[in-house]
């Protein structure tokens, strides 16, 4: 067991002290107990290191806003224990941490297993919407529906004690840490980088997983040079809990046969077996050179980066991918320049400035839209305010304040719009 700080994680060890270390990473909303059925067999071969995500399982509630942050905290914990090299198996968010480790710190990872994982988990909008639900209603709605996402219907009906255990795991998680983990998954996307994962990898998925199913697993296998796929029948998302024997057997076989040697401390090199050749379906057509066009449009010539790239990123994070995609899809030759202008200057120049946080900018924006009577934009900026961390109660206070300085009729219309948006955005989906 362990004490933790903001730079480390709550952990426990099982197994012989002189055995190689195998790290097991949990899924969002779970604790290290999700691996209880694997540990007795795995500890015959390895020293098992399990950890809890921040605010999960009674761990201190120090939110981590990115997968990279979680990976750094895990490495900080292992560094403090003198563990330099290890195998890693992670489920869902735990799998994302493992992918991040293999990409950023390949010298530390001897072998990798990604379970119910994906190079990108759904869409950013889905996870930020989940954060809005939790911020408004707490974790109870998410907890009550977790068995539907985690288990097959037959398993949930046949195992009521495990189903209730799953609900209680989520219900007792710190809401702020859960929301931060949702933000971490919203921004996680390593699809372009999969080819750089250089360790032997097992990709394991339940056949009935509706969250990150076989399609996502095949994307990982197609992208990672040395990867194998295992599909476990009769299992959904939390496959180590639903099919413990099958998962245990697959992990033992993988980590026994695919443990990459460490770097040679004298030469600095490492002998790696050649990766299996994967079939290439078709050669890409030749691309005409466009260097002359690209060079002519480089904004760096003006001595500063083009704010468009920052603008599109901020605009998507605040308004959501669906809204931004719709705006660009509706743009034509007449309105396209305006969309570029708004992205570059409103979002890249102003919203990206460090002087105010996004919560404050949402407060200012809502007030300005009330004053101008811009109700259509008030609707999507109310959604943005929820995504930026304002609660419905705080939005109400902004509109009440605006009523004093912008006028009661304007605020009356604003309340009707905001009320409808808040109902839509904060009502849990059953």
How would you portray this structure in words?
- With 430 residues, this protein is an alpha/beta fold.
- The protein has 19 helices and seven strands.
- It has helices at 39-42, 67-80, 93-104, 124-137, 140-150, 153-158, 160-171, 175-186, 214-223, 239-242, 244-257, 291-296, 308-319, 321-330, 336-351, 358-372, 375-387, 392-406, 408-426, and strands at 10-14, 21-25, 47-52, 86-91, 109-115, 201-206, 227-232.
- Helix 2 (67-80) packs across helix 3 and helix 16 runs antiparallel to helix 17 (375-387).
Chain-wise SSE layout:
Blueprint lengths: L9 E5 L6 E5 L13 H4 L4 E6 L14 H14 L5 E6 L1 H12 L4 E7 L8 H14 L2 H11 L2 H6 L1 H12 L3 H12 L14 E6 L7 H10 L3 E6 L6 H4 L1 H14 L33 H6 L11 H12 L1 H10 L5 H16 L6 H15 L2 H13 L4 H15 L1 H19 L4
Kindly estimate the percentage of residues that lie in beta strands according to DSSP. Answer: 5-15%
Integer average pLDDT:
89
Q: What is the number of beta strands?
A: 7
Taking the alpha carbons of the first and last residues, their distance comes to 37 Å
Q: For the largest sheet, list the strands in their spatial order.
A: 1-3-2-4-5-6-7
Order of helices and strands: EEHEHEHEHHHHHEHEHHHHHHHHHH
Quaternary form: single chain
Query: Fraction of residues in helices?
Result: 40-55%
For the biggest sheet, the summary is: 7 strands, mixed
Radius of gyration: 24 Å
Name the poorly predicted regions. Answer: 271-302
Continuous helix count: 19
Globular, elongated, flat, extended or rod-shaped: what is the shape? Answer: elongated
The structure class reads: alpha/beta
């Amino acid at each position: 067991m362990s004490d933790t700080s903001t730079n480390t994680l709550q952990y426990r060890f099982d197994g012989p002290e002189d055995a190689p270390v195998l790290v097991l990473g949990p899924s969002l909303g779970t604790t290290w107990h999700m691996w209880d059925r694997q540990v007795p067999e795995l500890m015959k071969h390895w020293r098992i290191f399990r950890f809890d995500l921040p605010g999960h399982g009674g761990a201190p509630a120090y939110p981590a806003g990115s997968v990279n942050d979680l990976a750094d905290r895990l490495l900080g914990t292992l560094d403090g224990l003198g563990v330099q090299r290890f195998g890693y198996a992670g489920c869902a968010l735990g799998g994302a941490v493992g992918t991040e480790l293999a990409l950023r710190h390949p010298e530390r990872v001897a072998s990798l297993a990604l379970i119910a994982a994906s190079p990108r988990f759904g869409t950013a909008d889905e996870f930020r919407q989940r954060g809005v639900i939790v911020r408004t209603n707490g974790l109870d709605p998410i907890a009550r529906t977790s068995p539907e996402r985690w288990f097959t219907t037959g398993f949930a009906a046949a195992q009521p004690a495990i189903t209730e255990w799953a609900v209680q795991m989520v219900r007792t998680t710190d809401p702020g840490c859960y929301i931060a983990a949702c933000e971490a998954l919203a921004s996680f996307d390593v699809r372009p980088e999969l080819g750089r994962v250089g360790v032997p990898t097992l990709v394991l998925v339940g056949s009935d997983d509706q969250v990150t199913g076989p399609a996502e697993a095949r994307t990982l296998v197609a992208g990672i040079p040395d990867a194998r796929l295992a599909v476990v029948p009769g299992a959904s998302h939390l496959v180590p809990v639903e099919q413990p024997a099958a998962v245990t057997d697959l992990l033992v076989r993988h980590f026994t046969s695919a443990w990459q040697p460490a770097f040679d401390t004298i030469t600095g090199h490492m002998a790696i077996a050649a990766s299996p050749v994967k079939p290439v379906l078709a050669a890409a057509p030749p691309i005409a050179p466009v260097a002359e066009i690209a060079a002519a449009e480089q904004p760096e010539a003006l001595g500063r980066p083009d704010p468009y790239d920052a603008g599109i990123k901020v605009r998507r994070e605040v308004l959501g991918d669906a809204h931004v995609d719709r705006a660009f899809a509706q743009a034509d030759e007449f309105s396209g320049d305006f969309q570029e202008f708004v992205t570059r200057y409103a979002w890249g120049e102003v919203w990206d400035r460090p002087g105010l946080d996004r919560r404050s900018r949402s407060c200012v924006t809502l007030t300005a839209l009330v004053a101008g009577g811009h109700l259509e934009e008030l609707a999507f900026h109310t959604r943005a305010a929820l995504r930026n961390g304002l609660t419905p109660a705080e939005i109400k206070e902004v509109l009440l304040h605006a009523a004093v300085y912008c006028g009661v009729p304007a605020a009356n219309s604003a309340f009707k719009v905001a009320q409808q948006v808040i109902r839509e955005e904060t009502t849990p989906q059953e």
